[in-house]
Design brief:
Elements (H helix, E strand, L loop, with lengths): L2 E7 L8 E5 L4 E4 L1 H6 L7 E2 L1 H26 L4 H10 L4 H13 L5 H14 L4 H10 L7 H5 L6 H12 L5 H13 L4 H21 L1
Antiparallel strand pairs: 1-2, 1-4, 2-3
Length: about 210
């Protein structure tokens, strides 16, 4: 069944869509580049096969455009990008192809994304366990975890400084317990926290001895 285009209306706002109105009263919202690439103009007749091809092209272009916006806003893994595209309503196959397309353009690199996530975690003073949670949340493949995690420096000073600020000058038992729990939530192991607490205790003892 053929359809005849009655009007082609340009987007009303930046990044908007072209509206294609048919003589049967139906209308499509298409990405401007798709409408331009297919040379859509009033009076043009589209066969059923051409309509199907146009819908497929618009769906694929939509997934690619959204993928570019997501990647431009933040570092994401291939798995996370595909997941987010599908969450936004993109066709699953188009989402997969959009990820593959960006990968071919060298705009997606799970190893580099993992390194960025680790660097961000370190800058926030997180321990290795919290950073691993970040990698997991971003759907980073475990095959690239080890190399990225090797970049974590010795965080003992950062942990000690964090605990010192939480404890204050004369911490009571409740304050100590709260500080320890906070450090554990930041991804430090009990062993690391215990060592840092011992360092602080020794520092406090030295301060008292010189008072």
């Amino acid at each position: 069944m053929e359809r005849t285009i009655k009007a082609v209306l340009p987007p009303r706002r930046p990044n908007g869509k072209t509206t294609v109105i048919f003589d049967d009263g139906g209308a499509w919202k298409l990405l401007p580049q798709v409408a331009a690439e297919h040379g859509l103009v009033p009076g043009m007749e589209l066969s059923e096969a051409e309509c199907s091809a146009l819908e497929s092209a618009n769906s694929a272009a939509s997934a690619r455009a959204r993928a570019v916006r997501i990647v431009s806003a933040a570092a994401v893994s291939k798995r996370e990008l595909e997941h987010r595209l599908k969450q936004k309503g993109e066709n699953p196959e188009d989402a997969k192809n959009a990820v593959r397309w960006l990968e071919e353009l060298d705009l997606l690199d799970d190893a580099e994304t993992a390194r960025q996530i680790v660097s961000r975690g370190v800058s926030r003073g997180y321990g290795a366990e919290r950073i691993k949670q970040m990698l997991y949340a971003k759907r980073i493949p475990r095959s690239v975890w080890d190399e990225a995690l090797e970049a974590i420096p010795d965080m003992s000073d950062a942990l000690t400084d964090f605990l010192r600020k939480r404890l204050g000058e004369a911490p009571d038992e409740k304050t100590v317990r709260s500080a320890v729990q906070a450090a554990l939530r930041r991804g430090y192991t009990w062993s690391e926290v215990r060592t840092a607490m011992e360092r602080l205790r020794q520092d406090m003892d030295k301060s008292r001895s010189f008072a």
